[in-house]
Amino acid sequence: MASASNFHHALIGTSGAGKTYTIRKMAIEFASQGVTQFVLDTQGDYSAGEFLANHDMKGVRVNEIKFGYGPGTAGLNPFSIHSNDEQGGYHHAVIGVLETIRLFNPAVGSRQKTLLRKLVNSTYQRKGITMENPASWQKNPPTMRDLLTTIRDEISSTKLRVGGEALFDGIEELRKKAKRLAKQARESASDEKRGQLQEEIDEAKESIFNKFQQIIEVEVDDEEKLPSIAGTVNRLESVHDMIEGVIVSGLFDGEQIRPKRGAINVLDLTSLNQVDQQPVFYLLLEKTFHSAVRTCEKLNPKVPDMMFGFDEVKLFTALADSPLSPINRFFTEGRKYGLGSLCGLQHAKQLTDEMRSSIGTLLLLPVAKEKVADIRKIWGIPEHLMSKLRPKSDAYYGFGNNDFVPIKLFG
User: Fold this and answer.
1) Scanning 178, 263, 279, 375, which has the fewest C-beta atoms within 10 Å of its C-beta?
2) Which tens digit of pLDDT belongs to each residue from 82-138?
3) What is the arithmetic mean of pLDDT over 389-411?
4) How far is residue 385's CA from residue 368's CA, in Å, rounded to a whole number?
5) What mean pLDDT comes out for the span 36-43?
C-alpha cells in the first residue's frame, strides 16, 4: 500500500470480476493507516453490513450517511459558506448554487444565469451576508426556499412598477380568454355564433393591447425601466419554476452530514433516482475538494489525507464537461492537496482523458470480451493474456509508468 499511495486508483473489470470487493478491501487498508475514506454507494454494495460480513475491518469504523428525499435523511445546502476560506468562500458558494440549479436544468440560458447570480447575491444580502465582509459568512446561510422568496418578491416589485400585479394578471386572463374563444369559434358550426365569438376575441385583443400600451408608456417615459418589464417578469417566472423544481426534489431539506475522520464514511445514495444522484455527487465532490484545499497544511504530501471511492464511474463522468468541474479538478489537482480516489469501472473508455492521465495505480481485472481490444490499445496488454484472467482471482497491477505485473487479488 505504500507504493500504491500514488493517490488515484482505477479498477477496471466486468460485473462479477471482483471490483467491489477489492475497493472495499483497499478502503479498509487505507483507513487503517489513518486516511479518511468517503465511499459513494449507489447500489447498496458498500453498506456497513457488507463490510462487516466480508472483511477483516482492522478496527476501522463504518459511518453510514444516508441521502434521501426530505427530513430524516442527509442533505446538502449549496448556500453554506466555509467561513475560514477568506480567499473565496463566498464566491465558491455562489458558483455551487448556480451549478446545482444548472444540473437540474441543463438548458438554462445565459440571461437566466445572469439573473440567477443577481438573485443569489440578493438572497445572501437579505441574511446580512456579503462577499466584502468575510465575518458575515459565519451567519446562518440562506436556503433554496429563501431564494424562492427573493424571486417572488422581485416579481411583485417588477409588476408594481407598472401599476401592480393586477395589470399583469389581467393580461394573462385576457390572453387565456382570447385563446379559449378562438377554440370555440373553430369548433362552432354556426356562422352567427362564430361572428359573436370573433367580436369577443377582438375586444379581448384590444384590452390586451391597451394594457401593454400602459407598460410601454411607463418604459418609454423612464429609460431606467428598460429592458422590457414584461420580458423581465417572464424571465423571473421561468427562474421561479426552476427553483421550485429543485425544492420539490426534497434533496436539500435533509440534515447536515457529519463525516468521521479516519473512518469509512459511506455516502448512501441508493434511495435517490439516478438523475438526482448526479447533482448530489457534484456537490459532495466540490465540497470535498474545497475542504482539502482549505485544510491542507503541506502541499504534495507523501500519503493522502482523504480518499473518495466511487463505483460505476459511468454515472458521473457526464459531469466532466468542463476542465473546472469538480470531478476534473479532483483528479488533476487533488493529489497536491492530499486527495486520492478509488474508482471502479467496467471498461477503459468510461474514463475521461483527464482522469486517465491522472491515475497512477491500475488494477485490470477480467473485462468483457468485446472490451479486451481497448485494453491492448491503451495499455498494451495482449488480448491472449487478458483472456487468461479469472474473475475474483487474477488481475494485472500497474503503477506509474512501470510494466504491468500479474497478481492474485484474493489469497
Assistant:
1) 263
2) 766 666 789 888 988 998 888 888 888 888 899 999 999 999 999 999 999 989 999
3) 88
4) 14
5) 94
Q: Which amino acid is at 117?
A: R
Q: What is the DSSP string of 302-316?
A: SS-SEEEEES-GGGT
Instruction: Indicate the DSSP class of residue 405.
Output: E
292-295: long-range contacts (C-beta < 8 A, 24 or more apart)? 292/334, 292/337, 292/338, 292/339, 293/85, 293/337, 294/82, 294/84, 294/85
Q: 147: Cβ–Cβ under 8 A, 6 or more apart, which residues?
A: 79, 97, 119, 120, 123, 243
- In the structure, how many helices (H) and strands (E) does the chain have? 13, 11
With the CA atoms of 234, 239, 243 and 245 taken in that order, what torsion angle do they form, in degrees rounded to the nearest 10?
Answer: 70
Helix pair angle (165-187, 144-160), 10° resolution = 90
Instruction: Mean pLDDT check: name the lowest of 37-46, 142-151, 320-329, 397-406.
Output: 320-329
Would the CA dihedral through 107, 145, 330, 63 be positive or negative?
A: negative
**Cα diameter, the chain:** 91
Residue 239 CB-density burial (10 A; 0-12 exposed, 13-18 middle, 19+ buried)? buried
Residue type, 137: W
Note the pLDDT tens digit of each residue in 217-238. Answer: 665 665 554 445 667 778 888 9
DSSP string, 344-390: EESSGGGS-HHHHHH--EEEE----GGGHHHHHHHH---HHHHTTPP
Edge-first strand listing for the sheet containing 264-268: 62-66, 264-268, 36-41, 306-310, 339-345, 8-12, 361-364, 394-399, 405-408
**Which H or E element spans position 32?**
helix 19-32
93-127 burial: b if 16+ Cβ within 10 Å, else e: bbbbbbbbbbbbbeebeeebeebbeebbbebbeee
pLDDT by residue (tens digit) across 244-256?
Answer: 988 887 788 777 8
Q: What is the pLDDT of residue 227?
A: 47
The residues near 246 (Cβ < 8 Å, ≥ 6 apart) are: 100, 101, 104, 144, 252
- DSSP secondary structure letter of residue 319: G
